[in-house]
Amino acid sequence: MAEDLEVSGRATLGGGAYRKVEVNGTAKMQGDVSCERCEVNGSAHVGGRMDVTEKFEVNGRVTVNGSIRAGAFEVNGLCDVAGECEIDDEAEIAGMAKIGRGLKAGRVHVGGRARVGGPIEADRICVTGSVECRALMNADEIEFELMGKSRVREIGCTTITTRVGKGGWFSKPRLEVEVIEGDRIEVEAVLARRIRGDVVVLGDGCEVDRVEYRTAFERRGSAVVGESVQL
Amino acid sequence: MEDELISKKELLDITGISYGQLYRWKRKKLIPEEWFIRKSTFTGQETFFPRDKILSRIEQIKQWKEDVPLDELAKRLSPDGIDVERTGADLVRLGIASPPALRLYEEAHPRARVLAFREIVCAHLVHEAIASGQVSLDEARQLIPMFEHSVTMFRDMQVRLDLVRKLGVGIWLARAPNAEVVIDPQANVAFSADVASAVEQLKLKLMGRT
Asked: Record's superkingdom (chain B) (predicted)?
């Protein structure tokens, strides 16, 4: 029968299986940790993997050397994971998250900042903050409310909409991407080399080298397009 | 003997599927990551696929997607998810492995009475090797540990096995199907087998569908 673990002061532990883990102080866990729920309000370092059946909530600072697997994931503070992040349901990043490899979840919501070294995969991705992804962002529905700069290498989706958020940050809000491919693409403020889709609508602030569309293409406002080809 | 490639655009045109579907199926692991081959073309980076494998896979997905949840379908399509067992005699009857091939397999695994899918693939490859007339019995025998090792290294059996021979000595080589490999000019590839293609063929034979 696994027990609860509560860390208030400073503790160094080996790792292990727990029921509820709550860190209000500073915890250094040297191995793999598995538990039902985890809440970090202070600071925690996990030397191995982190496996949480239900919710993993980071309000303070967490670093994980291995990968994270959780039912749900919420980062209000800071989280740095060297490996992958695999979440069953919702991954909510209101603070800042740095993920060395990929992020996979049912739904991803980035209100703060996320930097992901590998692919981001979800059914639905909603960004109201900023995202940096070095690989493919792959989801059915993708929605960006652009605040500041987001950079994604490639996007593949069913639908994507981007619009410039109100009350923008210091830098000009924009999404920089090499290629977007999807069924329905309706975007503003996107800087891209290629956009390919069935229906493509480019609005204000778009700069795209080449558009390939199957059904319809519309250029609105100040959108600049190098060439557009119907396939 | 390398796979003929097809571009993403051609794939969408021929199969009638959309970008959204292709990306969703990739995400759900219905289409192996290894089949997405990036090449530079004059319009930039493009993605290509092994033609026969992808067309066959898309057909299978289209056929089953209404009846089977995508996660379940992914399991069935992956070689590890195929829950099939056959005796040696069944394999001979189905034309999957010849008696000599089976004998070699049984020498390596004396306790095997009933073979699981992974083992069936192995026995079949040994059969193909012998049947080609280019592989000696001893070399075919060595294919068995080679296969078993390489499937632990290559996900979903996406691997090509080559027999490289120089001055009468053969060595097995396992590589990603579309990997560029340069061998000693004095050596030659006596036999080559694409395991993933063999898996697709076997699935059809074992599941009784043409």
From this structure: Bacteria
